[in-house]
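Re: your question from the hallway

Yes, I did run it. Sequences:
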Amino acid sequence: MNSGLRSVGILGTGSCLPENVITNYDLEKIVDTSHDWIVTRTGIHSRRIVDDNTATSDLATKAALKALEAAGVSAKELDLIIVATVTPDMSFPSTACIVQKNIGATNAAAFDLGAGCSGFIYELAVAKQFIATGVYNKILIIGAETLSKIMNWNDRNTCVLFGDGAGAAVLGVTEEGTGILSTYLGADGEGGKFLTLPAGGSRMPASVQTVEQNLHYIKMDGSEVFKFAVRAMGNASKKALKLCNLDVNDIDYLVPHQANTRIISASAKRLKLPMEKVYVNLDRYGNMSAASIPVALDEAIRKGKIKKGYNVVLVGFGAGLTWGSSVIKW
Amino acid sequence: MVFDKVVKIIAEQLDVDNVEDITPKTSLMNDLEADSLDAVEVIMALEDEFDIEIPDEDAENFKNIGDIAKYIEEKTK
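Structure:
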């Protein structure tokens, strides 16, 4: 190894989905929508929703314990914990610190990372640097969301799209030539207005008015986000592949952010990639923002879809606007 | 010229077999049974092909394919 950098890979993954299933038929009773409309526009059949007593860190903790078990790593060995989320338990302390306490990772630093649905890719990029350079040896990265808590259940354009869940991965040093071959990140603050949660921060602190005006819920311009997502998914994947001298033909498996099957199939068409090589679980879970990619990755691994030697591409896009992609040699 | 190219792209995007059936009066949603996301994909394909940007507020005014072709002719002049 002439770069002096260590190879960094995923040692184990885990995920946690709440038990409560909400079907499209359940939603028909709450808002003016239909199962057929939701399925043809989004591909979503059902989603999981937490109960009132469950917060993001609860799901994150369970996913983390499963990932540690799969990796054969103890919590005490962790040097750093990062949680990507747009639905933290509270503004502070960070959700990562709550997870650190819950799993007893007393030797780990901890912080949250905000990159919307691209959070897991941003985490991979950050964690990879620390391990490649020898600063840290074991890092736990988590994508965890309880989007049901910030959904307007009267807005049929958004409440049908999202779900709750958490996925985690333990990163460490791997055999040379395997692991994370490249990461590519991007952002466009100009487009940030298309997908927001307006109130509750320092621009618009919580008040009676913000609550009355439904400003604590997700706001989205669907068609603008759709256009952005289709282009971002194709372009980011190609950029990440180019960084490690591969191209679209070298993709053995694609694990995309799970926002909408129409986005995934439109992007796959642009990449000329058959859908057999693409993992899709949003029919069961909806869009879980930062949790979507790690949950999909965990399921794909446990189902044996990802085999040793595969070039696996992860790609995400979301609020910010942000996007990112990573190529991992399994 | 522009109209023929627009028809070709729409036919590809929406898997229309009989291209002859598409006239300037044809509506994407009413005649070709496109839904809102199909329409967005058509707009994206046109943006890529003609290297222009078609904002939502303009796209909302298109009643038929003749409108789309006229808009693109104006934009690419």
